[in-house]
Amino acid sequence: MSGRRAFLRNAAVTTAAAALTRVSPADAAPLAIPESNTVLGAGVNDTPYGSVSTFEHDVVRRTVPFLTAEDKSSVSFTPLQDLDGIITPSGLCFVRDHGGSAMSIDPAKHRLVIHGLVERSLEFTMNDLLRFPTESHVYFMECGANGGMDYKGAQMQGVQFTHGMLHCCEWTGVKLSVLLNEAGVSPQAKWMLAEGADAAAMTRSVPIEKVLDDAMLAWSQNGERLRPENGYPLRLILPGWQANLNVKWLRRLKFGRDPWETREETSKYTESLPNGKARQFDWVMGTKSVITGPCPEKPMAGRGFREVTGLAWSGYGKITRVDVSFDGGVNWKPARLQNPIFTKALTRFRIPWEWNGKQALLQSRAVDDRGHVQPTHAQLLAARGGNAIYNKNSIQTWRVNPNGTVDSVQVG
Amino acid sequence: MSGRRAFLRNAAVTTAAAALTRVSPADAAPLAIPESNTVLGAGVNDTPYGSVSTFEHDVVRRTVPFLTAEDKSSVSFTPLQDLDGIITPSGLCFVRDHGGSAMSIDPAKHRLVIHGLVERSLEFTMNDLLRFPTESHVYFMECGANGGMDYKGAQMQGVQFTHGMLHCCEWTGVKLSVLLNEAGVSPQAKWMLAEGADAAAMTRSVPIEKVLDDAMLAWSQNGERLRPENGYPLRLILPGWQANLNVKWLRRLKFGRDPWETREETSKYTESLPNGKARQFDWVMGTKSVITGPCPEKPMAGRGFREVTGLAWSGYGKITRVDVSFDGGVNWKPARLQNPIFTKALTRFRIPWEWNGKQALLQSRAVDDRGHVQPTHAQLLAARGGNAIYNKNSIQTWRVNPNGTVDSVQVG
To answer: CA–CA distance from B199 to each of A40, B111, B195, B261 (Å)?
Structure first.
């Protein structure tokens, strides 16, 4: 604290403060009275459910038109450049659908079935589930294809598109292991099939170890019920794993001996390696970070002081360290990690920067509590080969140009 | 963990599970295919900013028509009965205005002035503020009048109205002490005046100790910019203190030797004590808790197992313990506190309950890390007298009736 104060006295007073407009001395007249001080505002009956300011209407999920032929099997990206803290507002959480978002599921009619290799097949209404012991956890959710468009070089200009298949919410629901105590899973069951109630009947196989570890069935997201496009009324949560396995609109869990080799784990989310083999069941999202300010959408406001900030996460556990480079990876400085730091959740990092107005190459590199270090792009490509699409967790480089604009470039 | 498993085997299997509909044995046919599995859903371009399911449209802020003559100086209440976890969705955060919500403040035109007993008067644009070192914290916010309608007995039937002038958000902004390093507050300055840009020019005096402790200026709430009715584009945050001091639409901070004795700290938020004196500047919200499920709005679904859940908070620090009674305060059991437990934030508690179908009197009692214990209503009344309106933190009693309905009653 005294260190930061000293920093502020030495740096910010001569930089940030120097950029400020001074008003007249100590007994200064206050500002001219703004119009809002002179007219009655809205009544509380006008806003039973609030929405954002009209001045924030460009803070929205965005899509990439060329990415898919049809927007019912496409993705919208979270505007990471506009967000603070670690919680993603529910209305801005990226959406990836395989048959469109099921927007109209009636929770009174929705059912969850547990069957297959269990002692007792069970059917639950939503009200049944709500009686069980409940937990809340903050977890990130990332699409396996996040960043995939940039595997062959820096093609997407903007953090919303390079990293925006990512969100982080407070989820509330029941641990799956609690329900399975009721059903009695057979010792022979090694896999669980999860199926959604959407048009794609989105279906994935999950190994029993993950099911019994930290899997949960969530009905709430950031305090209120799930948003329709995020799986209302029930979603499987597999913390730290590829988002597509976190099956939305969950209606069925079947237990069996082997994986089901469904469409979404054979034709998708599987990829060819350099040696000709296929990498399948690559579930855990790697240790990763990105600077969200500055970024292409948020250029530099001018020389001098600004705080550089970003997000770090790991599907393996907690973030323990983030280093930032301003010269393309030659020199590194540790960033300050903001509390709270949760396992398998976004962690916010911050680091002060005094910009001299010259070109700079900004990078961030995350480390997690298993010792994983975020790789360079060259390291990742060497492991994955040229056909890679999924699980791109390599270091992102932003080039800050002398005019303050910011570009995505490939370095290292 | 093994304790809970054992509990579940003993209790839930014979209760919650007994209430479930069983489907046919291990190789059961899955459920009938729901319509959502057969029709394409919405495309991602349909939801640039998502909203809640149409089935959740009764989860809204509500008002009490008789409370004020006019809804521009009234309050809307948070639907605590519908919320999970500890984060309140921004659209559901209670609103209390003194001259209506200023809905249209242009952040490009908004200014913050710091003046009075300072070395350098300063004027900041929002973009100036955004360059400073930034922090995020989860804090609750509670109106000083929360529960005030029930001082003379249990009049309000529903947790939304007994306790709903309460929310909890992740706030992001700059510590006020950081800005004051730039301005150089005079050692003679013992008080700060904070003024809003709304029609009420909402104005409160804050002692310098709080200003230099944990006060912050926030521009973000739950990851995105403040909602208009919660103070967009800038709000003073005084963690744990009466919400009205957390001035919305903040435009001016003046430093001086004495409090300003503004309207909102003389005619309001001050009250008569039994001895004829007035209690003024009673800022800190006391140690408090309430059961949010069951409650009048969420009656019992039937006999047998259900989890009882609620919220606890203290303006003094962290919640360390919550006890729950099912017999009106005769016997108490410790509830499970859900992580994370932040200072001056809502803490979620949970406790299992096997309901025998008879009348029960549910209470919760919070303890914080300063040793404060939530008082009974009789204890509070003895201290505050019959004219009390503000800072009601006494124990709430819910009477569960044999038919499962729940009433608010006065016990203890």
So the answer is: 5, 16, 11, 19
Whether B37 sits inside 8 A of A198 (CB atoms) is yes
Q: Do A83 and B25 touch (CB under 8 A)?
A: no
Flag whether pLDDT at A4 surpasses 70.
no
Give the burial string for B215-237 (b: 16+ CB within 10 Å, else e). Answer: bbbbbbbbbbbbbbbbbbbbbbb
Q: What pLDDT, in 10s, does the model give residues B13-52?
A: 444 444 555 554 444 455 788 999 999 999 999 999 999 9
Structure tokens at B112: 């913050």
**A positions 173-212 inside 8 Å of B (CB):** 178, 181-182, 195, 197-199, 201
Amino acid occupying residue B332: W
Q: What is the pLDDT of residue B349?
A: 98
- Identity of the amino acid at A229: E
Q: Which residues from B are below 8 Å from A216, CB to CB?
A: none
Assess: ipTM above 0.95: no
Query: How far apart are the C-alpha atoms of A356 and A156, rounded to whole Å?
Result: 27
Residues found in chain A: 412
Strands (E), A66-128: 75-77, 95-96, 111-116, 122-125
Mind listing the pLDDT tens digit for each residue in B186-197?
999 999 999 999
Nearest residue in B to A228, CA atom:
B53
Give the pLDDT of residue B313: 98
Interface membership of B214 toward A (CB under 8 Å): no
User: With 50 as the cut, is the pLDDT of residue A393 above it?
Assistant: yes
**B235 and A13 in contact (C-beta within 8 Å)?**
no
Reported as type and span, the H/E element at residue B254 is strand B250-256
DSSP states of B268-299 as a string?
SS-EE-TTS-EE----BPPPEEEEEESBTTB-
Can you tell me the distance from the alpha carbon of A404 to that of A265, in angstroms, rounded to the nearest whole number?
43
Contact between B99 and A41 under an 8 Å Cβ cutoff? The reply is: yes
Report which residue type is found at A349: F
A30 in Cβ contact with B113 (< 8 Å): yes
pLDDT of residue B10: 37
Average pLDDT over every residue of A202-229: 98
Contacts with A267 (C-beta within 8 Å, 6 or more apart), sequence order: none
**Structure-block tokens of residue B104:** 């249209």
Whole-Å CA distances, A61 to A7, A146, A298, B194, B325: 37, 15, 16, 36, 46
Domains of chain A as residue ranges with CATH: 90-279 (3.90.420.10), 288-409 (2.60.40.650)
Tell me whether residues B23 and A113 touch, CB distance under 8 A: yes
Distances (CA, A) of A85 to A88, B167, B169: 8, 17, 11
Q: What is the pLDDT of residues B229-282, one digit of tens each?
A: 999 999 999 999 999 999 999 999 999 999 999 999 988 888 888 888 888 899
Residues B252/B192, Cβ–Cβ less than 8 Å: no
The C-alpha atoms of residue B230 and residue B102 are separated, in whole angstroms, by: 9
CB-CB neighbors (< 8 A) of A86 in chain B: 136, 170, 223
B233: preceding bond cis by omega (within 30 degrees) = yes
Tokens 């976890």 -> residue: B85
Spatial separation of the C-alpha atoms in residues A290 and A309, rounded to whole Å: 9
CB B133 within 8 A of CB A350: yes
- Residue reference for tokens 């300050």: A336
Dihedrals φ, ψ of A112, to 5°?
-115, 130
Q: Measured between CB atoms, which of B105, B306, B348 is closest to A136?
A: B348
